[in-house]
Design a protein that fits this description.
nine-stranded mixed sheet; 14 helices; about 30% helix; binds flavin-adenine dinucleotide
């Protein structure tokens, strides 16, 4: 079957399929972390699995990532590093951090089975070194295996749940996504699953009842219909590299200069799912990084907006800082420092202004007259006794900013690099079923990873994307394999 490009529609009726090129139990579209997890667990459940990957090799964005995996509840690594954690604390943190409408059912099951999910990675040969990296949240430069990867130990979360580091990092210095995907793909390759690369899936095949019966994909330059007897699992990534979709669904992300993903994060999987009747949710949300550290000393500065006012505790996780700056402050933010707190940040950041006095800095930044002066006067008044009653930054980082000259680092979206990827996507059940706007499963259709709206939308903590992508990828693969 060879549909011409101008005839491409995201769905096709089964009656239009002349002959099946292949028939398998489960077709998985995309071989990133979610697709690999789905393939591993579907194959183990006894299904005949075909993985279609559009690129010339698997890995996707997952292979280019930091490889941090959000896991907790008392994993072996947490215990060996001397941290106590429980599924309940993990649940409470995620419920608070991923508001305003957290997916309680998903967060419950993700927290409850997280220790088992950690063991699953170990079983696939992913190595973890039981050493805690204490210096800052996010990907460590070392091969240490455990980091804080969210705002667990910052206000208000430190009062909601017992803080514990939950960023689990495969043992390799620096970016660990390559090692992670190498191990997961090795498991898929050594299993009974078949992987076909340079295979772009472009349509879903529907029967008269609306059930998904297969896909149309381009293999060896030809379009073919492939039957999926039990289910199709969409794991084709997000839509950060589709400007048109971003403009429609998440226009604020367009102001961020560094869009994190491969060219195939073009929303194809989401659009296929929508065309088959799936609902999308949280489409405007993204993971938005605004790192102000390292060095940690910079957390002693204050972030202010275009009105010269503070808007967050600066010791929060850089993803929370980014979300607040972009969604609530329109991407206008400056980190204000004095002579004692100033340092060169590791992330390249321009100096937006300097002044011998606060008034001079305020004027150089174009802030309303008196605004920064009153913000600093209030901050310094409480900082004299190490307190921050307004935003509750930890006392470790609260010092009066009173030593001239003063400086401001540019944290605007226009003048600095904000890294983003999308978090919204298809609405799925805890078993990976794609749900219609009525909340009913689209028969035969499953999805996982950034093709779906995961746990963190909004309210990202590092590791949640690979964490929920693999966790719900496994469940999607398993449930597709068991469907009759
Ligand atoms: C620099 C960087 C650092 C990051 N660090 C972290 C981190 O530390 N922790 C974390 O959790 N997240 C991190 N992320 C985000 C995370 O990597 C991704 O959100 C996650 O890996 C997405 O996984 P996925 O399986 O949904 O998609 P992907 O890994 O992108 O896989 C999707 C696959 O589908 C294929 N595909 C697309 N369309 C089709 C089609 N039509 N037919 C067939 N195949 C198709 C693609 O080629 C791709 O291989 C980071 C991202 C980057 C770039």
């Amino acid at each position: 079957m060879t549909p011409k490009p101008d005839e491409w529609k995201p769905t096709i009726a089964i009656g239009e399929v002349g002959a099946w090129y292949r028939e398998v139990d489960v077709v998985i579209v995309g071989l990133g972390c979610a697709g690999a997890a789905a393939a591993i667990d579907a194959t183990r459940a006894g299904a005949e699995v075909l993985v279609l990957e559009r690129a010339s090799g698997g890995g996707g964005t997952s292979a280019n990532s930091g490889g941090v995996i959000y896991l907790g509840g008392g994993t072996a690594i947490q215990k060996e590093c001397g941290f106590e954690d429980s599924p309940e604390d993990m649940f409470r943190y995620l419920m608070a951090a991923t508001g305003p409408a957290p997916d309680e059912e998903k967060i419950r099951v993700f927290s409850e089975y997280s220790v088992e999910h950690f063991q699953w990675f170990v079983d696939q040969g992913v190595p973890f070194k039981a050493v805690f990296y204490p210096h800052y949240s996010g990907e460590p430069p070392t091969d240490d295996g455990l980091v804080y990867s969210g705002s667990e130990n910052a206000y208000p979360f430190d009062e909601i749940a017992r803080p514990a580091p939950r960023g689990h990092v495969p043992q390799v210095p620096g970016q660990a996504g390559g090692l992670l995907m190498h191990k997961l793909m090795a498991t898929v390759e050594s299993s009974a699953a078949e992987i076909v690369t340079d295979a772009r899936c472009a349509r879903l095949i529907l029967d008269r009842s609306g059930a998904v019966q297969g896909v149309v994909a381009r293999l060896d330059g030809e379009w073919h219909a492939i039957r999926a007897r039990r289910g199709v699992v969409l794991c084709a990534g997000g839509f950060v590299n589709n400007k048109e979709m971003l403009g429609r669904h998440a226009p604020q992300l367009l102001s961020c200069k560094y869009r994190v993903g491969t060219t195939f994060d073009d929303g194809c999987g989401i659009r296929l799912g929508m065309a088959a009747g799936g609902e999308t949710i949280n489409m405007s949300y993204g993971s938005i990084s605004l790192p102000i550290i390292p060095p940690k000393k910079l957390q002693k500065g204050i972030l202010v907006n275009a009105q010269g006012a503070r808007f967050i505790n600066e010791d929060a996780y850089y993803g929370r800082l980014g979300e607040y700056a972009v969604y609530r402050q329109d991407g206008r933010a400056y980190l204000i420092l004095d002579a004692e707190t100033f340092d060169r940040p590791d992330v390249e950041r321009e100096i937006a202004g300097v002044g011998e006095s606060v008034e001079e800095l305020e004027s150089e930044l174009g802030l309303p007259q008196g605004s920064l002066q009153s913000t600093l006067a209030l901050y310094n008044r409480h900082a004299e006794r190490g307190a921050d009653p307004v935003f509750h930054k930890s006392a470790d980082y609260v010092v009066p900013l009173s030593h001239p000259p003063y400086g401001a680092l540019d944290c605007t979206t226009a003048g600095s690099l904000y890294a983003v990827f999308t978090l919204g996507g298809l609405r799925t059940s805890v078993n990976g079923e794609v749900l219609s706007p009525l909340g009913e499963p689209v028969p035969g259709l499953y999805a996982a990873g950034r093709t779906t709206s995961g746990i963190a939308a909004p309210g990202y903590s590092s590791g949640l994307s690979i964490g929920d992508g693999t966790f719900f990828g496994r469940r999607a693969g398993l449930h597709a394999a068991r469907r009759r």
